[in-house]
Amino acid sequence: MSSLEELMTKAKDLHSEGHSSGQIADELSLSVDTVTWLLTQGKAGIAAPKDVHIDWTTVSSNSTLLGGISSMMLANFEAANEEEEGIDTVIGISVSGVPLATMIAAEDGLNLAIYHPSKHNPEGKIGSISGNFSKVSQKRCLIVDDCITTGNTLTEIVNYLRRHKSTPVGICVIFDKRGVREIEGVPVYSLFTIKRID
Fold first, then answer.
1. Average confidence score pLDDT of the chain
2. How far apart (Å, rounded) are the C-alpha atoms in residues 116 and 91?
3. Are 168 and 159 in contact (CB under 8 A)?
4. DSSP codes of every residue in the chain
5. CB-CB contact of 66 with 60 (8 Å)
6. Between β-strands 89-93 and 111-116, what pairing exists: parallel, antiparallel or unpaired?
């Protein structure tokens, strides 16, 4: 089975289990457009989007490796912000950003918040901060996720934080598929930039 066939199978399996396109995109580190294409493959007139699949399950499924990558993300942020005022709260983007943010918050003794993006909302209209974790109002926040694919979720959370009187001071990701230095004026700190060469 080819890697494309495997992705199609994984996407269809997740869809049959009730996952939304946004959730499948997060699970497979792909854009929602790519997931839509995978789920509708075979229908005439739908061109394959340009995307790169990243399989980091070797790291994400191993707590020791996950802790190591979280430490690298924090060190990358701190090296660029030695003069900057500190952060109060680390926000993990559901799903894959949550374990990374948890480990970063634990390493520096910071508050932890969880953000559920609008693409996980069945109505798809708004995202939200979980009420079971730290509040973000009046806090200086570090946003953590695994991957920037389109940047839409990160744009969404930056705007959410500003509306709720928070200060987003940085965005930490493992992989950046867009090669961006900032989103809505908030600096991006990625460990790896992935570029597709056409």
1. 88
2. 10
3. no
4. --HHHHHHHHHHHHHHTT--HHHHHHHHT--HHHHHHHHHTTSTT-PPPP------HHHHT-HHHHHHHHHHHHHHHHHH-SSS---SEEEEETTTHHHHHHHHHHHHT-EEEEEE-GGGSTT-S--EE-TTS---TT-EEEEEEEEESSSHHHHHHHHHHHHTT-EEEEEEEEEESS--SEETTEEEEEEEE-----
5. yes
6. parallel
Find where tokens 């509040």 sit.
135
- What token pair was written down for 21? 């396109």
Kindly report, residue by residue over 137-147, the tens digit of the pLDDT: 999 999 999 99
CA atoms within a 13 Å half-sphere pointing along the CA-CB vector of 170: 22
Residue 127, token pair as written in the block: 């995202």
- Structural domain boundaries in the chain: 3-40, 57-193
* Top-tier CATH class for 57-193: alpha beta
pTM score, whole prediction: 0.82
Strand pairing category for 186-193 and 182-183: antiparallel
The residue among 185, 116, 163, 162 whose CA lies nearest residue 171 is: 185
